[in-house]
Design a protein that fits this description.
Chain lengths: 164, 773
C-alpha cells in the first residue's frame, strides 16, 4: 500500500516508497532529513510548516507527500545561496524578527511568496499576508519590520541585476 | 562599556534563520521508537476496562503500558509548591481506575513509527463509566457537588489569606466604596513548539539521557531520576532548542516520565512529540480566577483599603507550581499604590479541567488586572481622571524600598515618571479632546491606562518552592576563549547574546570570544532555570559574580608578573593595563596563558581560570511602567480596534535594548490576547470546546497595531547589574490597559465593566441593547 514519489527539494531529488497518508512535512523532515520545516498545529492554522511547492507557499502539514509527487519544493534550507543569506533571513536577524525561532522558517517562506507578488508591500499588506502564520514571541512588530526591510533589499538587488 | 546597553544582533539567530537548529523533534537516534498516548475523552469517569489486544497485534507495536504498571514502577507527578493544610491528591503518570479531566493520559504505546504509534493508541479500547463532572469552581465548592478526589469530602484544595492593617476600619471610614467582580479567564500558553521529549539509556554507564523541551533542565533531571528510580548521577537532561515556553515548560509532565520509563523498559530510544490538540488539553493552563474586589477611598481618590476575595480554579490536580500561583496574586494585588489596609482571601477549587500553573505573568497579571480595573471603577465613580487617581496614590521615589500591604518590599521605582512619560508620548490631553469630539459624533473611542508593577527575578529562596538562586561558571581556556555555563535555560529570550555582552565588557574582549552554553545537566553546574523574569537578574548576576572572581585573580596574577598594584589594573581592548602611570601592560591572552603555565603564579594562587558562583538574591525585583491603550469601537460590528498603544516600561538597567523591546512586544500581545481573544472553554460536562487552534483564538499579525515603546531607567539595588527583568512586563501591563480603554469607550452607555475576552460580539450586544432601549 505504498506509492513511489519523487520530490525535488531545494534542487535535489528525493524519492521514496511512502504510505499515501504520509504528510509532505514528514517527507521533508524524516525522509529528506531537512528539519528546518517545523510542525506547530496539524490544522494548517499556525503556518510553521510553510514551504514553497512549485513556487507557491503551502502548509506542508496539510498536504500529502503523494500530492507533491513531481513537484519542486523549497524549504528554509534552500533560501541561502552560496553561503549568503537571503535578504529575508538577513532582515529577520537585523530587525530581531524572531525569538524562539520555531515559527521563523514558515514566516520567511510565506514572506518570500509575498515579496514575489508585491515588491514593496505596505504594513497592512504584510500583516494580511502573514495572517496564516502565528508567532507567539514577537508580537509580529519586528517581523513586519523585517519584511519591510527585506523588500527594500530585494528591490535594490533587482535594480543592480537589471543594471548589469 | 562597549557592548552593554547596545542593540546587538543575536548570536542565536544564524542557526534559527537557516533551519539548522535542533529542536527536540529534530533528534533521531538509531532504533528509536515513537510514543503515543491514549487519553481520556471524559472529564470524570471510572475506567471499567482497558483492552489493548487489538493495539498490541498491530505490526510495529513494541509495548503498551497502562496505569497499574506505571503506578508500581514510577513515582507520581511532583508537586513543589505546597501550602499548609492543602489537600494533596497523588497523580500518577497514567490514570489509575478513574479519570478526572479530558486529555488525561490512560495508556502509552511505543511503536516503530509515529503513525503506527498513533494508530495503536486509537485501537486501545477503553470502557468508561461516566460520572457527573464539575467545571465551575464556585459550584465545585458547594455542598452536593461531585467530588473529584473521593478520598476527600469536598473539592476545596486549600485556602490562603492574610490581612495587613485594619480593613474593617478603612471601609467604615471611607467616603466611597466601589466593588466589582472580575473574571480572569482560563488561557492556554501555546508555545509554537509543543512539548516533546526523547529518552535513551546510554551505554556503557547506563546513563539515562533525556532531551526535553523544558525551561528547567536541572529540576527535571532530579525529578525524573526520582520518578523512574535512576541514581541522579546517572541521569542527564539536555534541552535542545526550545520553541517557546511561557511558563508551560516550567514543569515536570507525565509524558517525560513515560518516555524515560519506556526507554529503560524497551532498551530503545523513545520519542514523544505532543500534538497541538494534546497541547491544549494536557499542557498546563493559566489564570482562571474569580476576583471580588472592594476598594475604600476618600472623596479625593486616596485609597484607604482594599479587600480581594479570590476563587481560583486550579483544575483537576496539581502540576509543579499549581498551588502557589494564585498566592502571587495576593502579594501583588496592591499594585503600584499605597494601600494602607489590605485583606486577601483565596480559596482554590479542584474542577474537572486541566491543571493551571505558571503562564507568562503567573498570578501577577491577575493582581494587576484586579487593581488596575478597580482603580478605573473608582475613578469613574469619583469622576476623577484615571491618570490623576493613580498619581495620587503612588508612593514617592524617596519611599523606596517600599513595604507593601501585600507583604513584599518593592526595591526601587519612580511610578510617576513612567506615567508622565507615557502620557506625554501618547499626547493624553490631546486624546481626551479627540475623545470628547468623537463622543459628540456618537462614536466610541476609549483611552485606557495601566500603571503596573510586577514581581520579577524569582527570587529569594525563602520565597521559592525549590531554590531561587542561580548558578554560573565562567571558564577562560588557555587560548583565551571564554565559556560561560549558565543554569538559566533561555528558550528564545536571547541570553546567549546578552550574557556574552556582559562578559565581553567585564574582560575587555570581543563578544566573538565568548560562548554561552546552557541546558545540559552534564556540562552545566546545577541550576534552576528560566522563568519568572529571572534569567538576567539572577542568572546573569551569578555569571557576573563568577566573572568578577576571575577578574580579581587575573589582576593579582598580572600585578605579580608586572610588579604593579593589582587594584590599578584594568581590562581594555584585549589588554590588561596598569593605570598607575607605569605604562605597563600585558595582553589578555598572555595573562590567561600564565594562569595555565603556572610558573609565575603569586604564592598560594591556584592554577587555571575557572570560577563558579551560586547567586542568592536578597529580594525580588519590581519592574514597573505605564501603558496607554486607545481603542476605537466599530459601531456596526462591535469590534474593538486598538488604534494606538504606548508602553513605557522600567526594567532597570538594559543590557540589550533590542531584546528588551522584543520581550515587551511579545508580552503586550499576549496581554492583548487575553483582553480581546483568548479563552479556554470547557462545557458543563468538562468537554474541551477550544481544543485546537481553529477554536482557540491566537492573535494574528493583522489584529495588531505598531507599538510605541519607551523606557525609564531605575536600576535595581538587588543585584550588581541593576537589572530587573522584562519577560513578563508586557503581559502584566497590557491586559488592563486594553479593557480599561474599552470600558472607557462604552462608559457613556453607563458601562462600568466588561469581562474578558472582549470580543466583538460582546460589545455588539451592548451597543444593540442600547439601541433597543
Amino acid at each position: 500500500m505504498t506509492k513511489h514519489v519523487k520530490i525535488t527539494i531545494n534542487g535535489k531529488l528525493y524519492e521514496s516508497d511512502v504510505e499515501p497518508r504520509l504528510l509532505l512535512t514528514h517527507f521533508i523532515r524524516d525522509i529528506a532529513g531537512l528539519t528546518g520545516t517545523h510542525v506547530g498545529c496539524e490544522t494548517s492554522i499556525c503556518g510553521a510548516c510553510t514551504v514553497l511547492s512549485n513556487g507557491l507557499a503551502v502548509k506542508s502539514c496539510t498536504m500529502f507527500a503523494v500530492q507533491a509527487d513531481g513537484s519542486e519544493v523549497v524549504t528554509i534550507e534552500g533560501m541561502a545561496k552560496n553561503g549568503a543569506l537571503h535578504p529575508l533571513q538577513e532582515s529577520f536577524w537585523e530587525e530581531h524578527g524572531l525569538q524562539c525561532g520555531y515559527c521563523t522558517p514558515g514566516m520567511i517562506m510565506c514572506a518570500h511568496q509575498l515579496l514575489g507578488r508585491n515588491e514593496s508591500p505596505n504594513e497592512s499588506e504584510i500583516r494580511n499576508a502573514l495572517d496564516g502564520n502565528l508567532c507567539r514571541c514577537t508580537g509580529y512588530q519586528n517581523i513586519v519590520k523585517a519584511v519591510q526591510s527585506a523588500s527594500g533589499k530585494v528591490r535594490r538587488q533587482q535594480t543592480v541585476a537589471a543594471g548589469d | 562599556m562597549k557592548y552593554v546597553g547596545q542593540a546587538i544582533k543575536r548570536k542565536e539567530d544564524p542557526r534559527l534563520i537557516s533551519g539548522s537548529s535542533t529542536y527536540v523533534d529534530d533528534i533521531a537516534l538509531p532504533g528509536m521508537l515513537h510514543m503515543a498516548v491514549a487519553r481520556s475523552i471524559y472529564a470524570h469517569a471510572r475506567i471499567k476496562r482497558i483492552d489493548i489486544s487489538r493495539a498490541t497485534r498491530l505490526p510495529g507495536v513494541h509495548s503498551i503500558v497502562t496505569g497499574e504498571e506505571i503506578a508500581s514502577k514510577c513515582g507520581p507527578i511532583p508537586v513543589a509548591g505546597e501550602i499548609p493544610k492543602m489537600k494533596k491528591p497523588v497523580m500518577h503518570l497514567l490514570a489509575l481506575g478513574k479519570v478526572i479531566y479530558v486529555g488525561q493520559p490512560i495508556a502509552a504505546v511505543v511503536a516503530s513509527d509515529k503513525y503506527i504509534a498513533r494508530d495503536a493508541a486509537d485501537l486501545i479500547e477503553i470502557e468508561y463509566e461516566p460520572l457527573p463532572a464539575v467545571t465551575n469552581p464556585e459550584k465545585a465548592l458547594q455542598p452536593g457537588s461531585p467530588v473529584i478526589h473521593e478520598q476527600y469530602s469536598d473539592n476545596q484544595a486549600y485556602t490562603f489569606g492574610f490581612e495587613t492593617g485594619n480593613t474593617e476600619e478603612a471601609f467604615k471610614t471611607a467616603d466611597v466604596v466601589v466593588k466589582e467582580r472580575f473574571i480572569n479567564q482560563r488561557l492556554a500558553p501555546i508555545s509554537m513548539e509543543t512539548r516533546g521529549a526523547v529518552a535513551t539509556m546510554q551505554m556503557p554507564e547506563n546513563e539515562l539521557v533525556i532531551w526535553s523541551s523544558t525551561q528547567i533542565p536541572h529540576l527535571l533531571k532530579t525529578q525524573l531520576a526520582v520518578m523512574v528510580g535512576v541514581p541522579e548521577n546517572r541521569a542527564r537532561v539536555i534541552t535542545p532548542e526550545v520553541g517557546g515556553g511561557f511558563g508551560s515548560k516550567l514543569n515536570v509532565y507525565a509524558e517525560e516520565g513515560l518516555v524515560a520509563y519506556l526507554a529503560m523498559k524497551t532498551g530503545h530510544p523513545v520519542k514523544w512529540i505532543e500534538g497541538r490538540r494534546e497541547n491544549i488539553a494536557s499542557t498546563i493552563h493559566g489564570r482562571d480566577q474569580i476576583n471580588d474586589v472592594e476598594l475604600a477611598l476618600k472623596k479625593d481618590g486616596t485609597i484607604l483599603g482594599m479587600r480581594a476575595k479570590v476563587v481560583a480554579d486550579i483544575g483537576a490536580y496539581y502540576q509543579l507550581l499549581t498551588a502557589i500561583i494564585p498566592q502571587l496574586t495576593g502579594l501583588l494585588a496592591p499594585g503600584a499604590y499605597r494601600v494602607p489596609a489590605f485583606k486577601f482571601d483565596l480559596v482554590s477549587a479542584f474542577t474537572n479541567k486541566m491543571a493551571t500553573d505558571a503562564y507568562r505573568g503567573a498570578g501577577r497579571p491577575e493582581a494587576t488586572y484586579l487593581i488596575e480595573r478597580i482603580m478605573d471603577v473608582a475613578a469613574q465613580k469619583l469622576k476623577l481622571d484615571p491618570a490623576e487617581i493613580r498619581r495620587k496614590n503612588f508612593p514617592k521615589p524617596s519611599e523606596f524600598p517600599f513595604q507593601t500591604s501585600g507583604g513584599v518590599v518593592y526595591d526601587s521605582a519612580n511610578y510617576e515618571a513612567a506615567l508622565d512619560k507615557a502620557l506625554n508620548i501618547a499626547d493624553y490631553a490631546g486624546l481626551r479632546r479627540k475623545q470628547a469630539e468623537m463622543r459628540k459624533q456618537g462614536k466610541y473611542m476609549g483611552i485606557g491606562l495601566s500603571s503596573y508593577v510586577e514581581i520579577c527575578a524569582m527570587g529569594p529562596s525563602v520565597a521559592m518552592p525549590a531554590g531561587g538562586w542561580e548558578s554560573a561558571t565562567v571558564r577562560i581556556d588557555p587560548t583565551a576563549k571564554v565559556t560561560v555555563l549558565t543554569g538559566a535555560s533561555p528558550h528564545g529570550q536571547g541570553q546567549e547574546t546578552s550574557f556574552a555582552q556582559i562578559i565581553a565588557d567585564q574582560f575587555g574582549i570581543t563578544m566573538e570570544d565568548v560562548f554561552v552554553q546552557h541546558g545540559d545537566t552534564a556540562r552545566i553546574p546545577y541550576g534552576i532555570g528560566t522563568f519568572g523574569s529571572r534569567a538576567t537578574a539572577v542568572g546573569g548576576t551569578a555569571m557576573y559574580n563568577a566573572g568578577q572572581k576571575l577578574r580579581e585573580k587575573m589582576q593579582k596574577l598580572a600585578g605579580h608578573i608586572l610588579q604593579v598594584n593589582p587594584e590599578k589594573i584594568v581590562f581594555e581592548d584585549g589588554k590588561i593595563i596598569a593605570k598607575d602611570g607605569s605604562g605597563k601592560s600585558m595582553g589578555f591572552g598572555e595573562v590567561v596563558t600564565q594562569a595555565y603555565i603556572a610558573r609565575q603564579l603569586p604564592p598560594g594562587m591556584e592554577p587555571g581560570l575557572e570560577a563558579t558562583n551560586f547567586f542568592e538574591p536578597s529580594n525580588f525585583t519590581f519592574p514597573f511602567g505605564t501603558h496607554v491603550c486607545v481603542v476605537q469601537i466599530d459601531e456596526e460590528t462591535g469590534e474593538p480596534k486598538i488604534t494606538k498603544y504606548v508602553a513605557v516600561d522600567d526594567c532597570g538597567n538594559v543590557i540589550n535594548p533590542l531584546l528588551v523591546e522584543g520581550q515587551v512586544h511579545g508580552g503586550i500581545v499576549q496581554g492583548i490576547a487575553q483582553a480581546l481573544y483568548e479563552e479556554v472553554v470547557y462545557d458543563e460536562n468538562g468537554q474541551l470546546l477550544t481544543g485546537s487552534l481553529m477554536d482557540y483564538a491566537l492573535p494574528r499579525a493583522h489584529d495588531l497595531p505598531m507599538f510605541e515603546l519607551d523606557r525609564t531607567v531605575t536600576p535595581s539595588p538587588v543585584n550588581p547589574l541593576g537589572v530587573k527583568g522584562v519577560g513578563e512586563a508586557g503581559t502584566i501591563g497590557s491586559t488592563p490597559a486594553v479593557v480599561n480603554a474599552i470600558v472607557d469607550a462604552l462608559s457613556p452607555l453607563g458601562i462600568t465593566h466588561v469581562d474578558m475576552p472582549v470580543r466583538a460580539e460582546k460589545v455588539w450586544k451592548i451597543l444593540k441593547g442600547r439601541k433597543a432601549s
